[in-house]
Amino acid sequence: MERVQTVFGSIARKYPTNRDESIIKLSQSWLETKRIDDEAEGLWRVHDKLYDLTDFIERHPGGAEWISLTKGVDITEEFETHHLYGKAEPLLKKFYIRDAKSPRNYKFTYADNGFYRTLKRRVADMLPDLDNKPKKISNMISDLMLSLVFATSVLAAKDNNFYLALLAGTFLNFQLVIAHNYFHRKDNWRMFCFNLTLLNYTEWRISHALSHHLYTNSYYDMEITMFEPHLQWLPRPKTLTQKISSWILSPVVWSLIGIMATVYRIIGYFKNIVKFRWDHLLALTLPIAMFYFGQRDIWIVLKLWFVITSMCSFLVGVFGLNAGHHHPDVTHEGDELPKGMDFGVFQMNAVIDRNDIKNSHFIALVTFGHHTLHHLFPTLDHGLLPQLHEVFISTCKDFEIELREYPWWPLIVGQFQQLARTKPKSLKESKQKDL
Question: Which of 81, 99, 133, 156 is the most buried (most CB within 10 A)?
Fold first, then answer.
């Protein structure tokens, strides 16, 4: 793919190394690219200082994987968004090695009196007094959905019922989105439910939590890169054929998300890029249950399992890719960026919330609801986010920032319009905020 130069600027100083080298996009390869571009010298970088967290890996309260995955990269954004209470900063100082030799690759700022850190302090002050009952409700919904996935899958196999398989696929998609609520947080057993879908929670911790959440709609966003060249949301020259084919291909690409992730993972095994782990086999528990408790005809089981996983993948595209990131009013790589580059202001410009689902705990939990707050505070349970809404809106008013909320249908239409967008936009054209 031809490298496209931005008009207004980029969130990073460098174009990602090897971004366009292969059509096969692996999370592990993205991390290797980031190690090259971040110049963290084999250590962990936070702002302009380097730390050696090797001895802390197994003691990290959020789980060893978060630290081991990010060795050799700049983790400033992860550190800022994942630690709200102010307890991590004094601990981090114990592992200081030296100052970094080069400026950060990413242009985000975190001024103490800026929007993001101000909101972060106010939220941290609220957390001890929040009602935690919604977290228990989220757990109950997750466990109920897990039961429904297996029950409907087995019944679909037992009766060789295509429509029950579609229903099972719908429940499996709900389980995927709910499990996404858990893999953002410290290690827990519910995050493993994500792997039932053919996708993998560790891969998505990289492509989603460490990439998309932090470098949204940029060259460093894997959820942009992994769909190229078939779906191209970044504003760049596109022929009429490319525009029309992307609209036609979209449902097909959505349906193949899980299968293609599995194919890429297997290719990664052979290339020694991906290491095999026991949890890669969790997806097989579903067809095994269908075979032993529903239907002993292996071909019927495999056929219906394909229907279930394809339905799940299709709905990932429907709910995930239309969640509010891809719309002509949303900032993408190449559009004008806010001058101060406050991380929180950038996130406000890179997402539009849905106003038709925010009053339902269940619907928000299974369709990526409260999306702006989720990007700003990804480790908090979705059920807690509505309690932050008042202080969120108050802080937005203090900084003269508008929380943009659209109904779902305009966001769906906007996602297809974004696939056809060719020219970068100014903040004024996109109705965004410049701070």
Answer: 156
* Residue-wise pLDDT tens digits, 89-116: 999 999 999 999 999 999 999 999 999 9
Taking alpha carbons only, the member of 16, 417, 422, 106 closest to residue 234 is 422
Q: What are the residues facing 44 on neighbouring strands?
A: 51
Return the closest-CA partner of residue 148 out of 122, 107, 178, 113: 178
Question: 273-318, pLDDT tens digit by residue?
Answer: 999 999 999 999 999 999 999 999 999 999 999 999 999 999 999 9
Whole-number Å distance between alpha carbons of 222 and 224:
5
Q: List helix spans (H) across 93-230.
A: 115-126, 133-159, 162-183, 201-204, 222-225
In a 3-state reduction of DSSP, which class is residue 98?
A: strand
CA-to-CA distance for 428 and 254, rounded, in angstroms?
A: 32
Query: How far is the C-alpha of 198 from the C-alpha of 280, rounded, in Å?
Result: 8
Shortest CA distance to 52 belongs to which of 69, 71, 37, 36? 71
What pTM, to 2 d.p., does this model score?
A: 0.93
- Per the CB < 8 A criterion, the answer to whether 5 and 209 are in contact is no
Q: Are 345 and 115 in contact, with CB atoms under 8 Å apart?
A: yes
Helix or strand or coil: residue 354?
strand
| Cβ 179 vs Cβ 190: under 8 Å | yes
And the tokens for 75? 């983790």
CA-based nearest residue to 208, from 183, 229, 191:
183
- What span, in angstroms and rounded, lies between the C-alpha atoms of 119 and 297? 56
